[in-house]
Amino acid sequence: MGPSTSDPYCECRVLDGAQKGPEIKTKVISKTLQPTWDEKFALESDAVGRILEFEVWDHDMWPKKPDFLGKARLQLTSERLPHEETVERTLTLESDRKGIKAQGTLTVRLGGVRPGDQVKLPAGAAG
């Protein structure tokens, strides 16, 4: 039997204080541990200066629920990027769920606003 694979997808949302904004979801990529989504999404202009949260999940067919693989948060600055310029950031996936150890990274490419640094999850969040 070969190495296990996942059917990963990624959800992204803008964090607004304690609330989470609407989520954007990528397509599922079947049977891989190294997905490349290469999808473009537009965020509302009020995302400037806020935190983007990315959650990576392993899709499972109903009635099973998807498996959490990890999350990462990225602070956006208020600095605008020149037209058509993009910046890449590689984020380390973390877990805030008890009994789940996240592994891997997520690389995102942003345009319009310059990304800041990765925001670490609070220490002890997994309990």
Automatic annotation (TrEMBL):
It holds the Pfam family C2. The lineage of its organism: Eukaryota, Sar, Alveolata, Dinophyceae, Prorocentrales. SUPFAM superfamilies: C2 domain (Calcium/lipid-binding domain, CaLB). Residues 1-91 form the C2 domain. This is C2 domain-containing protein. It comes from Prorocentrum cordatum.
